[in-house]
Structure formats: structure tokens, C-alpha cells
Amino acid sequence: MAGKISAESMFLRLANALTRSGYSDFFNTLVLELGSVLDVEYVLIANTVENPMKARTLALMARGELLDNISYDLKGSPCETVPERESCAYEGGILERFPDDHLLVELGVQSYIGMPLLTSDGRKLGILVAMSTEVTQFDDLAHEVMRIAAAQVGSELERSSQQEQIQALTYRDSLTGLTNRRGLHEQLLKQTPEAIFLADIRRFKTINDVYTSAVGDEVLRAVAERLQQYIGSETILARVSSDEFAILPSSADLAAKVADGLSLLEQGEAYARQIALWFESPVIIDNNEFHLDFTIGCAGQTSLANDQDKALTGAELLRRASVALADAKARQHGYAFFNSSMISAMEYRQLLFERFRKALREQNFQLYFQPVFSLKDRKLVGAEALCRWYDDEFGWISPLDFIAIAETRGLMQNLGDWVVTAACQQLLAWDSDGTPLPGKLAINISNKQIESHDTIQRFEQLTQGVDRNRLLLELTETAMMRAPELNLKRIRQLHEAGFSWAIDDFGTGYSSLSYLTQLKAAVLKIDRSFVSKIEHSQHDETIIQAIIVMAKALQMDLIAEGIESEAQLEYLIKSGCHDGQGFLLGRPVPADEFAQNWLSPTRKN
């Protein structure tokens, strides 16, 4: 058959076709040229990488025309017999040899030649096939043409495969298989979403600290799988940082998961609630249950007032969603939808952060001290150290603001350690002045301060020179329950090292009785929110009475916070609460004023 055109002409035309290698039309050009030079009706290039017994055509020529690509089974076909190295030819009677190959029957094929497509190290990637409806003798020249063409196609497939692998490494998250941040940015160049949600796993670092990073990785995979389980097929999902996922819901997904007739703002809130519902049931890894919740930031396309308005770019939407997430974290809210005021608020927080970091570096904080009294005789029985910050530019900064900065910017341990050190120094200063503090000095502790492995050694160093029996470390019930297992471990270790503990703001968290018994806390502090409602809420009075009974059963002392009226004081005394603090008894004041008011030998009790 190859004698119909000269060998020189055949190789020249083949060479011209091979020059298209690397171009998008290479495979199509080659099958058309091979059909002409080999004088056959059908030529195909097929990939068999995904399944060695199933071919997926990359180019398909029939009678000089390109057809749509198809997939077909190799079982029972001549393609199944193409060897791993050499060509395979049937020069007639192929229908009798392979009667179950319905495609051959339909095409009326009589002759067949196939060549494996190989990588440089000999792995089979697919097949190159030429077929004729006539009995044909495939001579050495035809075999050589097929060999040269197959070698170039194999090389091209290998190069494409390597590019795909590189692209996968570049644009895919290796842990979860999701699109990564770079891949998301690429997709945002191609399409503009209606809305973007950024979901950040709260307290994920604690999982790594308590259960190891390997378990943390399994949690991330489980989160990715659950999100994929619930989102719509057209919704884009990406992992954009360690514990942060981006969700770009399609219009159909939004319509399916939220009610009709809602504004984009309302849709965002509804979809965020859906995300929370998806994780109502815990993620289970190695028989450990992880109850996960998220902080979510969302940004959406603003309504277009006229034809001159332009839709926000995907990159701008992503930036706005990031701002909304930062705002939700700063306010300690579960969800926030972007609005322009967040920009100025974020700029203020950034400026405040810079001032805070400078104050921390120069130790420009102060300690105020609030007295704790025996309620019956109003005798001083201790005090609580409270951190205060006056900034030359902003004036007095609320502790709620600067503590939030410290927590979100990873500086809580630094601030907390300064407070412990300064409080101990003040105790020693009062001692040297001959006005020692009676009872214990309470110091608020963040759970961030007790997460590290060197917690015990650090606290021993911070409190050096002070009798530990004079200190009362306070951890809020809510903070304790953020990572109960780790906190219990550290608290036990500190207890064994001689430190006493108080559970602050008790009644506002969700600790179980079993945790309370394991904590070995010396003191329960009744939260001011209950005390403030005495005489106004029978429910809150009942809670106070229950706390008092429980504290006595567990042999814990009680301190009531936020006492502001004589009626509250009398109720607490009558209910059996012995100690308390609040504005009625004494406001927080600087150390010198505290000593003058309550530590002076001539003070009046």
C-alpha cells in the first residue's frame, strides 16, 4: 500500500505534520496526514492512562474528516492485542478474528495496524491506530511511518502529562486535593462570582497542639470532604490557607440552599448558617470527636445602579471577604458580611496594633488593682490585678479592644506574661513597704499562656521570689472549654507546682461537672451578669443559689463579681456567698492608691 506515493514524499509529509508538535492542532493534523499517506479510511490517537482497558480518543479521523472524540472498551478488540513495544498488524479478515468488536463491524474494517504510545522510560500511555476497509498489506515503510508518528505522539503525551502534574502541584492543595490559593486566583481571572465566603476553623491550632499535626491534617481532609458533600456541583471550593476555606457558590447552589426573595446580604447570612449546620455532627478521627465551628467572612457583588457600573473583580471580592473575615474575628462574631466601614475599622485596628506592639515592647502598660472583701465585715481578703493601657494618641484603650488585638495577632502570651511578672513585682514592693496584701492576688490567665510545652517552667520563672500560695490564677470558664483536654492537663501540672486556680465568669460557659471536679479549682467566681439581675430575675437568682450549693459540695470558695448595690450585697450574704468584689466595695485603682486606701496601717476597715 505504501507504494502509492514515494517514500521521500511520505516522510516529507509526515515531517511537516510532526512540526505541529506542541500546538493544539497537532493530533488532528497528524491523523489527517496519516490517513492520506497510508491510504486508510480511519486513524485515531487514544489515551489509556486512566484505564488500560478503556481508550479515550484524543483525535479521530474518518474518511478525511475529523469526528468528535469517543471512549470505547478494548476488551475483545484488536487494540487489546497491541503489545507494549512493537506494532501490531492485521492485513485482512479482522472481523472474523474479533466478531465482538461492534465498532469494527459498523465501520466495515478489514485491515488494522496499531502502535503503542510510550513514555521515555517505556510506560504505555495509549495507542495509535490506522484502519482500512480493504485487505491491505502494511509494508516496512508503513510500519516505520507508524513508529515515527507514535514516538512523537508519545513524547507529546508525556510532556503534556508532566505539564498537568506541574499544574496540579501549582494549583492544587496537596493535602486535600482542593484548588489552592493560586489556583483560586487563576479561576477568578476567568469568571466573576456572585459571592465569596471564607470559612476559618476556630481554634484549629489547639487540635495540632493536643493531637499532633498528623491528626490536624486528617481533620482538614475531613472538612474538605464534608464541604464537597454539601456544596453544589458548580460551586468552587478551595483551601486558601492552613485552616481557611473559600466557597464560591453558584447561582443554583445559592437558590437551592436559601429562601427566595432575599437580598444578597440576607442570602449570605442564610448560606453561612447552612455551613454551620453541615458541621453540627462532629468530625471523627481515630475515635476522637471534633466539634468544629467556623468564623465566616462574606463579600458579594453590589447592586449596579446603571449601565456604567462594573461588577467587582473576583480578586476584589476575595479581598473584601478577607476583610469581612478579619472583622468577624476581631469582633469575635461567627459571621460578617463586608461593608465599606470595615476598611476604616480595619485601618484603625492595624494602627492600634502597631501602637500596642510598641507599648508591649516598651512595657507601657499599667496594673490596676480591685479589692476583694469578706462580705459580712467588708474586711480586705485579696485583690485582682487588671491590665490597663493609656496611649498618648488614643487615650485610654478598652481592655476588650487591646486584649482582642493580643489574641488575634498572637501576642496574648507576651501580654499575659508581662501581667504575671508585674503583679508579682507589685506584691514584693508592697511587702518591702510594710503594707503586704492580705489573702491572694488574682491574675487573669489566657488559655494562650498555657498552651506551650514549657508552661510550667515559664510560670515558675515569672513568679520567682513570690510564695505561690499568695497567687490565684484565673481562667474564664469559656476560655477553659475552648480546649478542655489541654487546659486540664496544664492546670493539673500548675496545681502540682503549687499554683491555685479560680474559674472566672462562672455560669457563662458550658463546662461539665466532670471537668470541674478534675480542675481542682480553689475558687469559683460568680459572673457579674447574674449578680446584676438580683431582685429582677428569679431565674438568675436560682442559678446563683445552684452555683453556691455546687461550690460548697466541691469544697470551693466563692467570689461574687460586679456587686454594685446594697441589695445585691445583702442577697449574696443571705445566700451563703462569703466574698465579693464590685464598684460598691471598691473600684480598680493604681497600686499606690490601692495601698493608700486599703493597705495603709492606718486604713479604716
Report what the structure shows.
By secondary structure, the chain is an alpha/beta fold. The strands form four sheets. Strands 15-16-18-19-20-21-22-23 form an eight-stranded mixed barrel, surrounded by five helices. Strands 1, 2, 3, 4, 5, 6 and 7 form a seven-stranded antiparallel β-sheet that branches. β15 (365-374) and β16 form a beta hairpin. α13 (399-408) crosses α14. Residues 304-309 have low confidence and may be disordered.
Helices and strands in order:
Layout: H1 7-18, H2 26-38, E1 42-47, E2 54-62, E3 65-66, E4 71-73, E5 88-90, H3 94-97, H4 102-107, E6 111-118, E7 124-132, H5 140-171, H6 181-190, E8 195-201, H7 204-211, H8 213-230, E9 236-241, E10 244-248, H9 251-257, H10 264-278, E11 283-285, E12 288-290, E13 294-300, H11 314-331, E14 335-337, H12 341-362, E15 365-374, E16 379-391, E17 395-397, H13 399-408, H14 412-432, E18 440-444, H15 455-462, E19 471-476, H16 477-480, H17 484-496, E20 500-506, H18 513-519, E21 523-526, H19 528-531, H20 538-553, E22 557-560, H21 566-575, E23 579-580, E24 589-590, H22 591-599
Parallel strand pairs: 13-14, 16-18, 18-19, 19-20, 20-21, 21-22, 22-23
Antiparallel strand pairs: 1-2, 1-7, 2-3, 2-4, 5-6, 6-7, 8-10, 8-13, 9-10, 11-12, 15-16, 15-23, 15-24, 16-17
Helix pairs in contact: 1-2, 1-5, 2-5, 7-8, 11-12, 13-14
